Amino acid sequence: MSKMTLNEKLAILSDAAKYDASCASSGSTRRDSRDGKGLGSNEGSGICHAYAPDGRCISLLKILMTNFCIYDCAYCVNRVSSNVRRARFTPEEVVELTLEFYRRNYIEGLFLSSGIIRSPDATMSDMVQIARSLRKEHNFRGYIHLKTIPDASADLIAEAGLLADRVSINVELPTDEAVKSFAPEKDPATIRKAMADVRMRREAATEKSHTGRRAPRFAPAGQSTQMIVGADGANDTTILGNSTRLYASYGLKRVYYSAFSPIPDATAKLPLVRPPLEREHRLYQADWLLRFYGFDLHDITSGTKDGNLDLHIDPKLAWALNNRHHFPVDVNTAPREMLLRVPGFGVKTVNRILGTRRHRALRYEDLTRLGASLKKAKSFITAAGWSPDALIDSESLRARFAPPPEQLSLF
Amino acid sequence: MLHVAHMPPIGTLAAWRDAARRGLTLGIEPQDMLWTFGAEPSGLFTGTPLPQEIPQAAMTVPRSFVELASNVVWHSDPERFAQLYALLHRLRRTAGLMEDRGDPALARLRAAEKQVTRDKHKMKAFVRFREIERKTPGRRRFGAWFEPDHHIAEPLAPFFARRFGDMDWIIATPQACISFESGRVDIAPGSARPDHPDDATEALWTTYFRNIFNPARLKIKAMQAEMPKKYWKNMPETASIPDLIANAEQRARAMQDAAPTLPPLRSHRILDAAADARPPAEESSDQPDTLDALSRAEAACRRCPLHANATQVVPGSGPQDATMMIVGEQPGDREDLEGRPFVGPAGQLFDTVAAEAGLDRDRAFVTNAVKHFKFTPRGKRRIHARPDAGEVRACKWWLDAELRIVRPKLIVAMGATAAASLTGTGKGITKRQGAIEPGPQGIPVLLTVHPSYLLRIPEPAARAEATARFRGDLEQAVRTLATLSD
Lengths: 411, 486
Fold this sequence. Notes:
The structure holds two protein chains of two kinds. Chain A is of the alpha/beta class. Chain A contains 15 helices and ten strands. Chain A has a six-stranded parallel β-sheet. Chain A has a two-stranded antiparallel ribbon with strand order 1-2. A two-stranded parallel sheet of chain A has the order 9-10. Helix content of chain B is 43%, strand content 14%. A five-stranded mixed β-sheet of chain B has the order 4-5-6-7-8, covered by helices on one side. Chain B has a five-stranded mixed β-sheet with strand order 10-9-13-15-14, sandwiched between helices. A three-stranded parallel β-sheet of chain B has the order 2-1-3, covered by helices on one side. Chain A: GO terms for molecular function: catalytic activity; DNA binding; iron-sulfur cluster binding; metal ion binding. Chain A: InterPro entries: Aldolase_TIM, DNA_rSAM_put, Elp3/MiaA/NifB-like_rSAM, Endo/Exo/Phosphatase_dom_1, rSAM, rSAM_sf, RuvA_2-like.
């Protein structure tokens, strides 16, 4: 085999990385290179530098160090038993690609992941070397996200957290049983312990020492994880139950849901279907309700059939339709918690309603200017000059929102 | 009398603030103020320029207005200056106007602000540099051409200067050119599209763009909503979009239709080696006879459902020849993370009181009636949940094993759950506190409260009293152990 060019390697190792959903580059420490001694800045909010035709943002150079792997995870394109082409970057190549892309304003930084080669420690050590070179030799002040390897030694994880803005460890699948059957080399308990370890290190780094000096921050943009949706039989209640637990237990910034998507050279163990994109979307909506709208798991899952979210309407609307006795809500008097439950009102809209109604009564026409989606909200609210009359009791209310039944697609 | 205020394309914000301040000081009504914009003041409008020398009155405006104005002045709408000035006038009479999201004039300016901030955001994202020349040593030089909707190059210059600090660059736009050379920012009038040389890195970037795309998830509308076509002509990677879209469905279908292949030969070798290296699963029916063997067996425990939600099992800890065993209820949040018992707030309180009572924790064996953390997730926290009778019974197997291996002379049961596990009932723990009852394997059990109960007493005096009683129980345990050891 002739030696691969950098372009060929990049093709293989970015193709292999596309199944990781995270592209976030926000929420880290503020820093810049105005002093002229380095490259890059980080100002809190992330920037999406391009969008691929799959609608996903491209913020980071998301690549694998290598797609050689000694594990055999059924859902993964890089499993040892797959016949995909293999490639391996040298650490210098990854550093150069990151810096040259960054200089041209293509990216916010690097999201580095890897197949497991030789051993977890050997792999993690190469990844840490890349991050160290970027930070120390090149004074790179952009964003670095390292996918850490659960079995790697504590020293390597400790250094990874000091160099990177974010670290992540994928739980891979919603249940321990699914991990054991589809990723036999991975141990769910080890993954949980690794996440617990990151949480403890992050907490320890925020405490001041006895001299009053603050310890260097550990993964300041937090840790995240990813769950593949639709590869095993887990329903949405199980999936959301697991993410609720993960958020509570390990202080995760994000749980990413990745619709299981056809991969080249798939195994016979998993059915290749169209990725359940709509389901993935509903899970993200439910995740937001759990984290920012005061919903608890029971609110979201109690009204579902067979434990799965309604694919035709969003979970907040589904809750409102199942709990009509709470509506209509008066936008001029209702408390914040109740406003947050109105379909069509986002957190920003609710804040604006609360700010404006301190000065005057809100009329129906005001609400559009406040950012509300009245198509949804109007059936659930009263305002000066507006009452939904009998709408809320109408049997056909759901039909107003759900799309008309489609003819079965043959594909 | 009509006054004319002329706004230059460079330094627009400072010019507008200055003119607005002077207009207000002189009491000029919005309808008497004519705002012009351009490189040179136009001779078309007749009116009196604002006087240069006027007394500066102290003026306070809400911070939110300053933020609004600092974006809206860069908008391309010719009316923006007049609209801002009119709002400023109204602000002096109407308190709280800035919070009124329903006011139509403010809403119009907010909409303009949103267009400017979005345009700025897209410029930060979609500017593409090309390397102009590579001379070593020294700072590398890059150039870009961008076509924004509004006059946003100037306000973005500091952002690019903070980001690309170690290189020289110039970003040309039709409205203004911003550049950065050896640490100095410069702003010059707009220009035509410059001719930058080809940059080989663009081919690598396009390779990345093509391969990070997942053809099975085609969502063209979502892409265009965030990356409208008007930006495409200055972004090298977008040339490959039509081709990616055209072939997506066929590529996705090919992946589904492809028959599974046989794994490569080397995969068997690697998987066999990995299987050999894995330790065999622990047999849970074996009776472990050392603490090490016991904790390995506990790690694989599936006797009740609690293992599924906890991070890890928290086995008892202490010397194998300890004469006293302390039994609590279950691990808490901290114990679950660390895998060691009694390290959280309740454990720390226990340590303090035990030391006061003359009880050396390091010589005792500390453990829990239930070895996995049971909790209810609530937001970012885990709320302790009491284990039920079935879970206590399932875990008794491990507590019995610890007792068999350690063979303590005295057990201290803290709280109702430990009492239930060790004496068969957890009822009436306050009445039984301080009593010594017969326990498993003929070992006496001294009953007391759990330290987390002390932490939950809000009233300081009551807490101090309960803590003193708890300390008394531990002192009694030390004394009792001395008589039992004689």
